[in-house]
Design brief:
heterodimer, A: 2 domains, elongated, B: 261 residues, alpha/beta, Rossmann fold, four-stranded antiparallel sheet, 8 helices, 29% strand
Chain lengths: 405, 261
C-alpha cells in the first residue's frame, strides 16, 4: 500500500510546483556536479595527459634541470645534457635505446606572417622508427620525415587544420621560412590534442643542430627500456649514471628522470585535487539542499495542518500521516537526484564530445549505472532523512487542533 | 418516527471536557449524558459557545474527555491506542464538516477514495466504490474535477460520499448546511435524511432549532456546556424527555388526577 502514499506524495508535490522545484535546486546542483565529474573522469585524464605529452607507457624521459626559464622543456637548463650522456645511457643493460631530442624555439615565417614556435628533432636511422613509435607520430597528409631529408619539415596539425597561425593553412609542398632558411613541408601530423605537439615543427636532427647552432647539446633524452616491468630499476640505473656523469650527489640532482607513471601520477594528483574540491562543493550543495527540504517540509506541515486534521478524521493513523510526508520529502530528494543525473549525463556527454574534438580522441561516455543508481537512491535517502522530523511533527498533530487549521 | 430500539451505537457517560487556559480552566462541557441508537437521527443543538463542537469531537472520538467514559459500539474508546482509534474512526464514523474539508489537490473521486486508502482497500475496489458513491450523490459527472471547480453544495455532497466510503454505522455531520444557502442546504439535508431512512445513524450538530426539529428524532439541547434538555419526536411534536421534565410531567398528571377526583 506504500505505493499509494508515493502517488499521493507526487500529487502534492505537483500541486506545489514552483516551490518543489526551488527546493530541489540544491540537490540537483550537487548531483549534477558529482555525476558529470565522474562521467568525465577518464576523459579529463586523457585530456590533461595529452597536454603533458604522455603517450607511450614504456619511455623514460631524462632532462636537465636547473634554471628553466622561458622555453621548451630542457632548453633553459644551465648544464645541458649532451650526446655523451645519450651514449652512456644507451650502454646501460636495462636500456634498449636512448633517443636524443632537441627542442628549440625559433622564428618561422609563412604568408608574410612571422611567428615563434618550437622545433623538435627527429633522430636518424633505427632510432627514427623508435621515435615515431614513442611519439605515436602519424601523418594526416603527406609523409613522415626520412633519413637524408635536409631542407624538409613536418608540421603539427594546427598549421594545416587552422588558419589562426599564418592566416591560411599550410599545405604540403609549400615552403616555410625557419630562422630565415627555406624548408619544404613534407607532411602534416595527426591531431594529438596537445598544444605543444599540434603546434610543433619537426625536422631531422642534423639540420636542426646546424640551424640552431646546438653543438653536442641535447634537451631531452627519451629512453626505451628493455623490460617494461623493470621500469623503476631502469630509472634508478639512469639516475645513478647521470649523477656520475654530472658529478652530483644524491639529493642534489640537477636533472630529472621521469617515468610516464610518475607523470600520470602528477596529472592524477592534480585532477584528484580538482575532483575533491568539486565534490566538497557538491556535498555542501547537497547539504544546503537537504536543509531546504527540511525548511519546505516544516512550512508544508504548518500550512497543511487542516489537511492533516482531515486525514486523521477520516481514519489516517499517525503512521499513515508520517508516511505521506516522509514520501513527499523523499520524493523531493529523488526528483532532485533524477534531474541531477540527467543534467550531469548531458554535461559529461558534452564534455566528452569537447575533449574528443580537442585531442582528436574517440573516448566513450563513462555510463556508470551503479553511480546513477547510487545517486538516485542517495538523493531519496537525503530527502527522506531531511523529512523525518517534519513528518513526525505532522503525525503528532492533535486532530481537533489540526482541524481548526 | 421510527421505533428502533436497536443496538446502542454511541454512549457518553457523565462526560466532561475541560481546557486549561493559563491559570483558569474552561469547562467546555460538563456531565454530559448522551446515547445514540442504531438508525436514529440525532441532533445536538445549541448556540455558539454551548459546547456542541466539543461534544461532536468527543462523539467522533477525535478528542478524549477530561472525565467520564465514551463507548463506541460498547467499547470504551479510552482503551484504544491512537492508531486503533484512527482506524475505528475511519471505519465506523463518517464525518461531514461545515466547511466541507475536501483536500484541494485531489480530485473529487480521489477525495472519496482517500478514507478507503487508509483502511488498506485495493485501488480497484476504491475506484469502483468511489464511483458508486458519487453516482449516489449525483456527482459522477464531476468525478475528475478538483474541489475548487465545483460549487459549495456539490462539495458538501462529495463530503457526504466521502463519509460513506468505508460504509460506517454513523454519519457525524457538523453544521452540514452552515456554509450553504437554503436551497442547496435542503438538498444536502435530503441526502442525509435518505441515508438515515436506509438505516444509517446520523448525528448532526447544528445551531438551527428548526433544522434540528425538521429532521431529527431526538434533539440534545446544550447551553453553556451543560445539557439543558433532550426532546424526542412524538408524532409531529417534540416532547421533553429529560428526567426533570418527566418528573414534572408525572407530577402534573398526578395533580390533575387528584383534582379530577
Amino acid at each position: 500500500m506504500n505505493f499509494d502514499y508515493l502517488i499521493l506524495a507526487l500529487k502534492n508535490l505537483k500541486h506545489r510546483g514552483i516551490r518543489s522545484w526551488l527546493t530541489l535546486l540544491g540537490i540537483f546542483i550537487g548531483v549534477t556536479a558529482v555525476v558529470s565529474l565522474i562521467g568525465l573522469g577518464a576523459g579529463l585524464q586523457a585530456a590533461v595527459g595529452a597536454q603533458f605529452g604522455i603517450g607511450s607507457t614504456e619511455v623514460i624521459s631524462v632532462q636537465a634541470g636547473g634554471l628553466s626559464a622561458y622555453g621548451p622543456p630542457g632548453s633553459g637548463a644551465v648544464n645541458k645534457l649532451t650526446t655523451d650522456d645519450v651514449d652512456a645511457i644507451e650502454r646501460l643493460s636495462s636500456v634498449k635505446v636512448a633517443i636524443p631530442r632537441i627542442l628549440s624555439s625559433g622564428k618561422m615565417e609563412f604568408n608574410d606572417i612571422v611567428t615563434f614556435g618550437i622545433a623538435a628533432s627527429v633522430p636518424d636511422g633505427e632510432k627514427r622508427k623508435v621515435a615515431y613509435e614513442i611519439l605515436d607520430s602519424e601523418v594526416e597528409v603527406g609523409r613522415l620525415l626520412k633519413d637524408g631529408d635536409v631542407n624538409k619539415v613536418m608540421l603539427g596539425y594546427n598549421f594545416w587544420g587552422s588558419e589562426d597561425i599564418f592566416g591560411k593553412a599550410v599545405v604540403t609542398g609549400k615552403t616555410v621560412l625557419i630562422q630565415d632558411e627555406n624548408f619544404i613541408v613534407v607532411g602534416i601530423m595527426k591531431k594529438t590534442g596537445s598544444l605543444i605537439f599540434d603546434n610543433v615543427v619537426m625536422m631531422n636532427e642534423a639540420p636542426l643542430r646546424d640551424l640552431m647552432d646546438y653543438g653536442d647539446d641535447v634537451d631531452i633524452i627519451a629512453v626505451q627500456v628493455k623490460d617494461k616491468d623493470l621500469m623503476d630499476d631502469a630509472k634508478e640505473d639512469i639516475e645513478k649514471l647521470m649523477r656520475k656523469q654530472r658529478d652530483v650527489d644524491v639529493g642534489e640532482e640537477d636533472f630529472e628522470v621521469s617515468t610516464p607513471e610518475a607523470m600520470m601520477d602528477t596529472v592524477n594528483s592534480v585532477l584528484g585535487g580538482v575532483q575533491a574540491f568539486i565534490i566538497i562543493i557538491a556535498s555542501i550543495s547537497i547539504l544546503v539542499g537537504a536543509l531546504g527540504i527540511v525548511n519546505t517540509m516544516t512550512t508544508s506541515v504548518l500550512e497543511r495542518r487542516k489537511e492533516i486534521g482531515i486525514m486523521k478524521a477520516i481514519g489516517a493513523t499517525n503512521y499513515q500521516v508520517f508516511l505521506q510526508f516522509f514520501f513527499e520529502s523523499g520524493l523531493l530528494g529523488f526528483i532532485g537526484g533524477l534531474v541531477g543525473v540527467i543534467l550531469g549525463t548531458i554535461v559529461s556527454s558534452l564534455g566528452i564530445i569537447g575533449i574528443n574534438n580537442f585531442i582528436g580522441a574517440e573516448l566513450g561516455l563513462n555510463f556508470d549505472f551503479v553511480l546513477i543508481g547510487g545517486a538516485l537512491f542517495g538523493s531519496f535517502v537525503v530527502g527522506a532523512v531531511a523529512g523525518v522530523v517534519p513528518a513526525m511533527n505532522a503525525a503528532k498533530q492533535d486532530p481537533v487542533e489540526a482541524l481548526r487549521g | 418516527m421510527k421505533k428502533v430500539k436497536a443496538k446502542e451505537v454511541i454512549r457518553l457517560r457523565n462526560v466532561s471536557k475541560h481546557y486549561p487556559m493559563g491559570k483558569f480552566v474552561v469547562k467546555a462541557l460538563s456531565h454530559l449524558e448522551f446515547k445514540v441508537y442504531e438508525g436514529e437521527f440525532v441532533a445536538i443543538m445549541g448556540p455558539s459557545g454551548s459546547g456542541k463542537s466539543t461534544a461532536m469531537n468527543l462523539v467522533g472520538s477525535l478528542d478524549m474527555p477530561t472525565h467520564g467514559t465514551i463507548y463506541l459500539d460498547g467499547d470504551d474508546i479510552s482503551e484504544f491506542s491512537e492508531s486503533d482509534l484512527a482506524q475505528v474512526r475511519g471505519k465506523r464514523i463518517g464525518f461531514i464538516f461545515q466547511s466541507f474539508n475536501l483536500i484541494p489537490n485531489l480530485t473529487v473521486k480521489e477525495n472519496v477514495m482517500l478514507p478507503m486508502m487508509f483502511q488498506g482497500t485495493s485501488i480497484e475496489e476504491r475506484s469502483d466504490k468511489a464511483e458508486e458513491l458519487l453516482r449516489l450523490v449525483e456527482l459522477h459527472d464531476r468525478m475528475d474535477h478538483y474541489p475548487g471547480e465545483i460549487s459549495g453544495g456539490q462539495m458538501q455532497r462529495v463530503a457526504i460520499a466521502r463519509s460513506l466510503a468505508n460504509d460506517p454505522e454513523v454519519i457525524l455531520a457538523d453544521e452540514p448546511t452552515g456554509n450553504l444557502d437554503t436551497k442547496t442546504g435542503a438538498i444536502v439535508m435530503e441526502f442525509l435524511e435518505k441515508l438515515n431512512k436506509e438505516g444509517k445513524t446520523v448525528i448532526m450538530v447544528t445551531h438551527d432549532p428548526d433544522l434540528a426539529e425538521k429532521y431529527a428524532d431526538v434533539v440534545y439541547w446544550l447551553l453553556d456546556g451543560v445539557l439543558e434538555k433532550v426532546t424526542k419526536r412524538v408524532g409531529k411534536r417534540f416532547v421533553d424527555v429529560t428526567k426533570k421534565a418527566k418528573k414534572a410531567l408525572v407530577k402534573k398528571v398526578r395533580k390533575k388526577g387528584k383534582g379530577g377526583k
